[in-house]
Design goal:
single chain, alpha+beta, hpI Integrase, Chain A, 3 domains, 15 helices
């Protein structure tokens, strides 16, 4: 009887304490069973290494939202990053502090850290949608990237790059020529094949896999920029039977080339170089805005800067090593300049071209 009375007193005390907080014994029991139910559900949630692999495969193989090859390569790399750092945890065990702790220890630039966090956020969004966690720990994480000074390559550095590629990586010549003398983005240049280049009509077509959509480059006369077609015609004469771009390990080869050159390499340096030398050639901001496909603000920030006339002349005079022509050669007369069709221009095949 004493034991029963003791238990009854304890229960009454709990009831009194619950009453002080506006709760009943039923509330307490229901809450406890809900807790047990949640614990059971949490216990059967797979670890991140299993979930991340499932997310990776779904995203990689999606036919509803297909992703381009470059994104697939990034996805493969960042899904491995997630598994390596949090693979043995469960999604609900990762919070913002856990993520920031890893980011702080990474020997990467903040640009790279921010990119990694972008994929981490995508993964945890997927986990939320699938019911594996209630919050996304990557939300609200701020990784500051300082605005860096836009840099361009000197003509001598561009010569160094192209001579290296000619000698050691001839399969990459076309890619770099379009970036350097056409102003194409690397993702655009990487997708070009021989059939996209109309030598007779002087136009280059870029397919719609990238962020800018399908684009058709049309040319107008400007003697200096014939350098683009001097290179392309030379390349066709010696490698026209080979793919215009490598079909394997393209980005790996780019990284190798960047590691070999003796000058610093910054993001978008080839496009910035083209835009700057282009502006210094024509001194027409409106045309640069149109042909580069950037806003006036971006063009002013990136391309409107003075370079020596001798550097501008030297840049537009760079020729293939085996076809080294002087800039005043007669072959430079009545030759084209890369120009982009205006937004929503429809070609004869019904394809819509958009400005870069």
């Amino acid at each position: 009887m004493e034991q029963v009375r003791y238990q009854s007193n304890q229960i009454q005390k709990m009831i009194d304490r619950l009453g002080e907080r506006g709760k009943t014994l039923d509330d307490c029991i229901n809450f406890y069973f809900l807790h047990l139910e949640q614990e059971t559900k949490r216990s059967i949630v797979p670890p991140i290494k299993e979930l991340c692999q499932k997310w990776y495969v779904e995203k990689r193989d999606s036919t509803n939202r297909p992703i381009r090859t470059k994104t697939k390569n990034e996805l493969k790399s960042y899904h491995k990053f997630i598994i390596d750092h949090w693979g043995n945890l469960k999604p609900f065990e990762v919070n913002r502090k856990v993520l920031n702790g890893v980011y702080e220890e990474l020997n990467n630039s903040n640009v790279t850290k921010r990119q990694k966090n972008r994929y981490v956020r995508q993964f945890f969004n997927w986990c939320k949608l699938e019911g594996y966690c209630s919050e996304n720990p990557a939300d609200g994480i701020k990784i500051t990237v300082k605005k860096s000074e836009v840099t361009i390559l000197k003509p001598s550095e561009i010569v160094e790059l192209l001579r290296l590629v000619e000698k050691k990586f001839p399969e990459m010549v076309g890619f770099y020529v379009l970036c350097v003398f056409g102003g194409l983005r690397p993702s655009e240049s990487q997708r070009v094949v021989w059939d996209d280049i109309n030598f007779e009509g002087k136009e280059i077509y870029v397919n719609s896999e990238g962020k800018t959509g399908s684009r058709r480059f049309i040319l107008e006369e400007c003697p200096e920029t014939n350098v683009l077609w001097v290179w392309l015609n030379h390349l066709k004469s010696i490698r026209g039977h080979q793919p215009f771009n490598p079909t394997k390990n393209h980005e790996g080869t780019q990284k190798k080339i960047r590691s070999i050159v003796k000058f610093p390499w910054s993001q978008d340096v080839l496009r910035h170089s083209f835009g700057t030398y282009y502006y210094n050639l024509i001194h027409d901001l409106g045309k640069v805005v149109h042909d580069m496909g950037n806003s006036e603000t971006i063009c002013k920030r990136h391309y409107v800067r003075s370079v020596a006339n001798s550097d501008t002349k030297e840049f537009w005079g760079i020729r293939p090593e085996e076809n080294d022509q002087k800039p005043n050669d007669s072959s430079l007369q009545s030759t084209p300049l890369v120009r982009i069709l205006s937004d929503e221009t429809v070609n004869s095949n019904g394809e819509t071209s958009v400005t870069c």
